[in-house]
Amino acid sequence: MAERTSKDLLLKNVRKSSLQKEGFFISNPDFDSDVFTKKEGTLAEIFAKEFTSNKGKFIYCYHEYHFLDILLKAIEKFNWQNIVCGHPALKELLMSCNISTTSGLDEIQKADVGLISCEALAARTGSVVVSSKTNMGRSIGIFPPVCIVVAYKDQIVYDLRDYFSTINQSESMPSAISIIGGPSRTSDIERKLVIGMHGATEIYVFYIDQNKNY
């Protein structure tokens, strides 16, 4: 008898909850407010912290000449011989400092370094946004062992949502968008972390603290 009473009470509570179900729904949900705690610091500082925590390498540059100076030193230090770049403006910038580059799909697989531009940097997640509008950005970011992303001050946003809100208003939506959070990695093989399995083993973001001029 006691068992039946407990069962009846349980069913009664279930029925009661079902009758009150409508009270749990919000008629006008808030989709605009942040669900994450706002992080402190400048956008560049927040991005650098998150990106480096994912094994990416962040290099701050005051301006384009500072970027070229650091890049020349890196080329000499790491003996990078073959640099592939598909972006005309970046190729021109590198040529101003006698840094020769190649382009084309045949050259990508032989390159030591791939140099690309980006659509945006998302500070909160430390992510690099590359789209089909970026010249060979997806291919260059995968094949060479080292990927260098060149980003400017006016390309950094707080969250991915801020970037997507800009392209939703654009007349031409990219056919593909890729989010890069750091070097390629996988733990599928015997649960051991392997870096560079599906793409570059090293990813550098050269952040130039001036607005993009192209």
Describe this structure in words.
The protein is an alpha/beta fold and 214 residues long. It has one domain: NagB/RpiA/CoA transferase-like (Rossmann fold). 32% of the residues lie in helices and 21% in strands. The protein has helices at 2-19, 43-53, 64-78, 88-95, 105-108, 137-140, 160-167, and strands at residues 57-61, 83-85, 113-116, 120-122, 127-131, 146-152, 156-157, 177-180, 185-186, 194-195, 202-208. The chain has a five-stranded parallel beta sheet, with helices on both faces. It has a four-stranded mixed beta sheet with strand order 7-4-5-8.
Summarize the structure.
The protein has about 210 residues and is an alpha/beta fold. The chain has one domain: NagB/RpiA/CoA transferase-like (Rossmann fold). Helices cover about 30% and strands about 20% of the residues.
Second rung of CATH, namely the architecture: 3-Layer(aba) Sandwich
Q: Biggest β-sheet: count, sense, barrel? A: 5 strands, parallel
**How many beta-strand elements?**
11
The CATH homologous superfamily: NagB/RpiA/CoA transferase-like
Name the structural class: alpha/beta
Chain-averaged pLDDT: 82
Briefly, what CATH class? Alpha Beta
Strand order of the largest sheet: 1-11-6-3-2
Gross morphology is: elongated
- The radius of gyration over CA amounts to 24 Å
How many angstroms separate the termini? 82 Å
**Count of helical regions:** 7
The CATH topology is what? Answer: Rossmann fold
Percent of residues in helices comes to 25-40%
